[in-house]
Fold:
Amino acid sequence: GACPAPAAATHRPLKIGHQGCCSVSDAADARLVAAHLGIPLYICNFKKDFARVIDYFVDEYARGRTPNPCVRCNDWLKFGKLHDYARSIDADFVASGHYARIENGRLLRAVDHAKDQSYVLFGIPRAQLARTLLPIGALRKPDVRALAAELGLPVAEKPDSQEICFVPDNDYAALVEHRAPHLARSGPILDQQGAVVGHHTGHHRFTMGQRRGLSVALGYPIYVTGKDPDSNTVRVGPRQDLLASGCDVAEANWLTGEPAPGESRPVLARYRSTGPLVPATMRTLEPAPAPAPGGAPAPSGRAARFSVDFDQPQEAVTPGQALVLYGAHEPDHVLAGGWIEHTRRP
Structure:
């Protein structure tokens, strides 16, 4: 099957570009490939369900957080609705083109670490691993293209998708303002001491660690170090103000043995999709009393939340982003993942 085009905006039709993995042209490409291989193609229309992803995207920016819609789309649609549909037609497996591996019931990083996408797959329900296929995780990207060319597939040289599929012209701020016009309002930019050093046109236009486009000069390199949607302020400061000693993570999904409450263990943590694996200590926390705002309900189980303390302070650990744990002694093995709630300063 192919991903559907996303839902339209509520106020006027939203022009969807041809970037990303969910455009009309991608569905047409899927049809061409299926015809070439002589296999049936079914198109699932999840347009209404995809509206949930866009709503989440806008809501997270409104809350001063930085969303990760690709992970949510995987969780809610590819490994949610699509698996439900597969069961309804008695399909044994759902295959995905992500660069990762599943071996002996465990989710692993791809052989090609430069293309690894295990980070965005942490939300797969553990029970679904046995019904999921990741056929290219053991291959490197050039080998996949060569195989596609050998098979005569029309997508052998198709460029990699880089942008968010439902954001027109890659202008995410315009999309957010279109659906939440109240966010497009001026507010102060504050320095470390709380002094006003400039003004912005909407806190949603800034992300943690951002350096360019601040329109503020303090005589030394400055970065966005925080945002407060309640006061509509953006805080800037030197690079060391980006450092975090640790963070708390909600909506944890454990893909391996679920630890007991309060249990600690050494891990490797990744808090950006293309970031390094950094040594840390994980400790499970008591489950949250209610679902995280804007997100899915926390999964059942004893360890729906955990904290992470980094061995060395890390830069721009951003609330709203995913944090994924890998084995301290088996760095290819995905243990769990969740969503960053709060960070701690050194």
Notes: The chain has five helices and 14 strands. Residues 1-18, 296-303 have pLDDT under 50 and may be disordered. The two ends are 47 Å apart (CA to CA).
